[in-house]
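Feature request, filed as a ticket because there's no other form

It would be nice if the structure record came with a short human-readable summary line next to the C-alpha cells. Right now we just get the raw output. Example of a typical job, pasted below so the devs can see what we mean:
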Amino acid sequence: STIIKSPSLGLFDLSCAENSLTHKIYCFGGRQGNQNSNLIYEYDPATDNLIQKQAVLPYPIRSMSCIENSANHKIYCFGGYAGNYVAQIFEYNPLTDALVTKNPIFTYGREALSCTEDSFTHLMYCFGGSTNTNAFTNIFEYNYTADTLSLRPISLPFPRSGFSCIENSQTHKTYCFGGNNIPLSFH
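Raw output as currently delivered:
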C-alpha cells in the first residue's frame, strides 16, 4: 500500500463507506475525467492518510452504492456503470483487503441507486437507480448470510435515481432524499 499525502483524488461518482470497527473510510471506483477507476482507497481520519489498497474492483466502475454491514463489518457495493450497467454485488473485507463478487444479480443493471442497511436485521436494501433510458422504482433486499437478492413487493412512488437513502437506527425506518425521476446518464 502506498500512502498518498493529499486526500484529494480528483475522482467523482465514487462511493465510500466506513468500517465501524476501525473508523477508516473506504472509497470504491469512480471516475477521473472520462476514465472509470477500479481502485479502492482507505482513508484514516485519525492520521489523515489515504492509502491505495492492493485489492481492486474486477473492472473500472463508477456510480455504485457502497455500505457497511454492521454485523460482519464487510462493505457491499451494488450496481454501477462500467461501459454498461452493472447488475452485480461486490463484497469487500477491509480486514483482509479481499474483494469477491457475490452470486445474486439485479434483474437489470443500474447506476445511481441508493442502498442502506437495516441495523436491526442486517438486511440491506437498494432503491431505484437508472440506465440511460430508464429510472427505476424497484426496491431490492440483499441478505448477506443467505447471499440472496429479492425484489420487494412494494416500490418507490415514482422512478428515482441519483438520490441518497439512510436508515434511522432508532426506528429502523429508511428515509430517501433528493434525486431525479429521469435517467441520469453522463456517458
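Something like this underneath would help us a lot:
The chain is about 0% helix and 40% strand.
Residues 104 and 149 are 6 Å apart (CA to CA).
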